[in-house]
Each structure stands twice: as C-alpha cells, then as structure tokens.
Amino acid sequence: MAYGLRQKAENRNLNSEKVGIKTFKSIYNYTPKTTEDWNAMQAITYSGSAREKDSDNDLLSDEMELQYGTNPNKADTDGDGHKDGEEILGGYNPKGSGNLK
Ligand SMILES: [Ca+2]
Ligand SMILES: [Ca+2]
Ligand SMILES: [Ca+2]
C-alpha cells in the first residue's frame, strides 16, 4: 500500500517532537512557549529537517535546500550570519536581504 505524503503528515509522535524541541532550543536558546514558538517547532519537526540528511547542519535538509536554491554544503548561503534554515523559518530570504514574502 502506498501511504506517501499523507502518511508522513499524520506520522506525528512524541519522539520526533522531542527532536524538534531540541532543535528549537539550539536555535532560539529557550523552550517553545507561545503558539508561534510551537508553530516554528512543528515546522522544524515536520519539515523533515530534523530527520533528513542535512550536510551543512543549518536545519534545512539537503532536499529542501535544492527547493529553496540555497547551498546544501554551506550553513549560511548569503553570509549574513544567519543559518539558511533559521532564515526560512523566520520568513527571511536565505539568499540575500529582505523577506521571503
Ligand atoms: Ca542544510
Ligand atoms: Ca545550507
Ligand atoms: Ca544567511
């Protein structure tokens, strides 16, 4: 049977959320408290960046880096001091100044 993406989305479990919280802490230096924090944490957990291969350790999986056009071997593609994954989660442009939107 093919579950595909649907199964993936429903595949919520405490273990992956624990990893997400840990990842969140490593970015923001505090545990998620507000709804926004939890949204960001879940984005981290379920975007796959917490479990897929992330060569440069910038919280964005290699596959997602291809989608965003960032460098999968460089944690900070545009060199502004913020990791690619951090900028994506914050709504910033990882390839230059300004916002994604
Ligand atoms: Ca990466
Ligand atoms: Ca990168
Ligand atoms: Ca950057």
Structure description:
48% of the residues lie in helices and 0% in strands. The chain is mostly helical. The chain has one domain (19-90). It starts with a helix and ends in an 11-residue tail after the last helix. The structure holds calcium ion (3 copies).
Domain unit count: 1
Bound molecules: calcium ion
Tally of helical runs: 5
Order of helices and strands: HHHHH
Distance between the termini: 38 Å
Provide mean pLDDT, rounded.
81
- How would you sum up the major sheet? none
Oligomer: single chain
Q: How large a portion of the residues is in β-strands, by DSSP E?
A: under 5%
**How many strand elements?**
0
Radius of gyration: 14 Å
Sheet/helix structural class: mainly alpha
Query: Which spans of ≥5 residues are poorly predicted at pLDDT below 50?
Result: none
Query: What portion of residues is helical?
Result: 40-55%
Overall geometry comes to globular
Layout of secondary structure:
Layout: H1 4-10, H2 14-28, H3 35-46, H4 62-68, H5 84-90
Helix pairs in contact: 2-3
Structural features:
101 residues; mainly alpha; globular
Q: What is the gist of this entry?
A:
With 101 residues, the chain is an all-alpha fold.
